[in-house]
Structure formats: structure tokens, C-alpha cells
Amino acid sequence: MKEKLSDVLKDFKAGRSSLEEVLSLLDEHGKGENVFLNGHVALDMSREKRCGFPEFVFGANKTAEQLLEIVNRLYKKKSNILITRLSKETFLEIKNKIPSAVIYDELGKVLYHINKKTKRSGTVAVVTAGTSDIPVALEAQYTVEVCGYKANVFFDIGVAGIHRVFNRIEEIRKANVVIVVAGMEGALPSVIGGLVSVPVIAVPTSIGYGAALGGLTAMFSMLNSCASGVTVVNIDNGFGAGCAAVRHLSSI
Q: Which residue, 29, 101, 181, 202, is most buried by CB atoms nearer than 10 A?
């Protein structure tokens, strides 16, 4: 669609196509292709054409029946699959009714399948302050990988042992985008942000004792970072960080 639209616009500029043809194609591009399932779900099959990443699904609060139909429909259409926040209990309900190629990561609560194995240029470093932050980091990692980019992970290198950052910083600097996942006081994104020249996306997590306030303390710390240009997503939103990284990479 993108190439077709570009060709029509070039033809219009050269006087070979009419304004009506351009408007018609734009209208077609805007409507997209929707797949309706049982009146509860409308899968947006044109999202990748518009946004650069496939139709992804938030798994929490969806029934096993709904998720089963979503997975099978996406698989049948040869789309890459990513369902986030999917509980183990719900996965076990649908496990024997979905293609065996579909993978479930219990720690990250992510179900995924890469049908279109497109290798895109660009890498993402996914960094966590602590081991407890890994589930959120996995959500980010799989989001990036399902979109065709490589993700390298660096777990448990938080500021409580700052030497761990310096031991891995040269590897982290090789990435085109860095996602930093941290709870507690959320200090690690500021440290990383002062050591790399590429976009840094900070993810506050709800990990921490009482005054961590379910991730609010980490989020406020990240929003007030002294490291210029650090982007902050919502609490525990590894998926959002992954999508933000993909948007950065698609512009390279």
C-alpha cells in the first residue's frame, strides 16, 4: 500500500493521475481491513501498513474463547502474533486448540508467533535494574522481536552495584535504541541516559517497598531525569516501550 500510494502521488505530480484517484486511494488506505469475530472483536489487519507493527492484542480480561478465535484467525492469515498480559490459566484453556508453533512465555505473560520472519535493520538493548523487573522487560523484548528487530537483553545491572553498568555499557552502546526497565527509585534510566547517544525509553515498574507507591516513585523520578531526552512510558508498560522503540527504528 505504501509503495502504491507513493506511485500514485508521483503520477499525480507528473500529471499522469487525477485528484480523484489520489483521494480514492487515501480513502482506501484509511478504512483498512477489519476482521470481525463474534461481534466482540474487530481485528485491525491494516495496522502494519499504517504504523509499522502488526495487530497486537491485550490479553487481560478477554475470555479463552475470544483469545482462541483471535490466535487461530491471525495464524490463518499468516500474521505475526503477540498477545500480552495473558495469564497461565487462560493459556492452559486454549493450549491444545491453537497451533503448536505458537509459544507462551509464562514469566513475561506473552503469547507470540513469528510467521513473517522479516529481518529489519536495527537493534534494541533491553536493560533491567533488577531481576524482579524482567517480566516487564520480556514484554518489551518480544514486542521488538515480533516486529522483526533484534533485541539484546542486559538483566540485573541496577545502580545498587553501579560497576555492573560499566561492565556492560560498551555492549549497550552498540544498540540503536535502549529500553531501561526499573522499579524502586527508578534511577537507572538517568545513568544510562548520561552514557549513550541513542534514544532511551524508560519503563517504571511497580516493584518496590511501600514508598515506591506501585511504580509512581520510579515514574516521577524518570520524568524528572537529569539526562536530557529520556522518554518515559506508563508503569509496567513494556509493550508500549517496545512499540516506541520500533517507531524509532522504522525512521532510521
A: 181
